[in-house]
Write a structure and sequence with these properties.
385 residues, 8 helices, 28% helix
Length: 385
């Protein structure tokens, strides 16, 4: 009996998902639990597994289709099984909900194998004439286009062609929206890390590597404490109202090979340092393996993005993670000459870049927040009192 593959609910806030790519082709034999396709929500990409054994009889939702929860994505069944009734029942909803975005070629009739070959060779499938039924582009059509060079995207030599889709497009759309929506201002400052690094060394004495407290964990606790002291930085603009939020949920930007995710440390102000450190490690590790749920990627009220590990950035302009009001960029720590007690000494100095939405927060309050944060970092015992 045929089994329907439907758009799963991947998080409490999820309403729709976009088909990122199919991992199986029509006609492939699959077993229950096999990864079939990737579905992208606003925050994360998840693999959808086969709900049963059989043959992938039909791929209903093409790559790029945006569909609501429960919409039909494909059908698994026995070879030759009649699934016309299932397809007829789903056709109206699929046509209305699954329309591809402007400029997307997912509405072009093309076999999965042909589409994959075209992508691998950087071809514009809109330039390929299909010879299959109803103008469907076949693998042979793509091979001919490769041979003749008639469907190249452009004539410029490229080392690699990467489709602007999936997570990359989601990040791009969100960043562009943030850039044009809020009135962003960035304050840059340097902070002496001597005492914080000394504290870290002290608390890590005798601990195994997996249990050691990271600098990021200490900075997260410092930011959470600063937000308790200056709560207006923990705010959002909701229509005609500015909401100062009660929960302090710190988003932690994590770089992936092909993008960026922002898992969330919830109630960071009320958690012990060890809890925060462990949670940062766990979320980052699972995030790089694509094992986070959408709920672990939502609800941040303030974000930290740390480029310090690269050792190359002294200041930058982080883009605010909407609907938050501010984001803190952490830069590299380098030994620099500073004046202390009238003497020139060498200290480890770190750069901080605070971007904030000037519609909600003025420059002076943002500077006051940075002053509090600097004091907490340079006298880190104050984080815990």
């Amino acid at each position: 009996m045929a089994v329907e593959i439907t758009m799963p609910k991947l998080g409490l806030s999820m309403k729709t998902g976009t088909v990122s790519k199919w991992l199986k082709n029509e006609g492939d034999q699959v077993k229950k639990g096999d990864p079939l396709l990737e579905v992208m929500t606003e925050k994360i990409t998840n693999k959808v597994e086969a709900p049963g054994d059989g043959v992938l009889l039909k791929i209903v939702a093409a790559k790029g289709a945006k569909l609501p929860i429960g919409a039909l994505l494909g059908v698994i069944g026995a070879q030759g099984e009649d699934i016309s009734a299932i397809l007829a029942q789903a056709s109206v909803g699929t046509k209305s909900a699954g329309a591809p975005a402007s400029g997307d070629k997912s509405n072009v009739k093309i076999s999965p194998r042909a589409r994959k070959l075209a992508e691998e060779n950087g071809l514009d499938i809109g330039k390929i004439t299909g010879t299959g039924p109803e103008g469907r582009i076949t693998r042979e059509d793509v091979e001919k286009a490769i041979e003749e060079g008639t469907a190249a995207v452009d004539d410029r030599p490229a080392l690699e062609v990467i489709p602007y889709e999936g997570m990359r497009r989601a990040i791009g759309d969100n960043m562009a929206n943030s850039w044009v929506t809020n009135a962003k201002v960035t304050h840059h400052v340097s902070v002496d890390m001597s005492q914080l690094l000394a504290l870290r060394k002290s608390v890590n004495e005798g601990k195994k590597d997996r249990d050691k407290i990271s600098v990021t964990a200490l900075l997260t606790k410092a930011v959470a404490r600063a937000l308790e002291i200056k709560p207006y930085m923990n705010s959002t603009l909701d229509g005609e109202e500015i909401e100062i939020l009660k929960e302090i949920n710190i988003g932690m930007a994590v770089a992936l090979d092909d993008g960026l995710i922002v898992p969330v440390i919830r109630d960071a102000n009320s958690k012990r340092l060890e809890e925060v450190s462990w949670e940062i490690q766990d979320l980052a590790k699972r995030g790089r393996r694509n094992k986070l749920t959408p709920d672990e990627m939502t609800g941040a009220t303030f974000t930290i993005t740390n480029l310090g590990a690269y050792g190359s950035v002294d200041a930058f302009t982080p883009i605010i993670n909407l609907p938050e009001a501010a984001i803190l960029g952490v830069c590299r720590t380098v030994d620099r000459p500073v004046v202390a007690d009238g003497q020139i000494v060498i200290r480890p100095v770190m750069g901080l870049s605070l971007s904030f939405d000037h519609r909600i927060i003025d420059g002076a309050p943002a500077a006051e927040f940075l002053k509090v944060l600097i004091d907490l970092i340079e006298s880190p015992h104050k984080i815990f009192i």
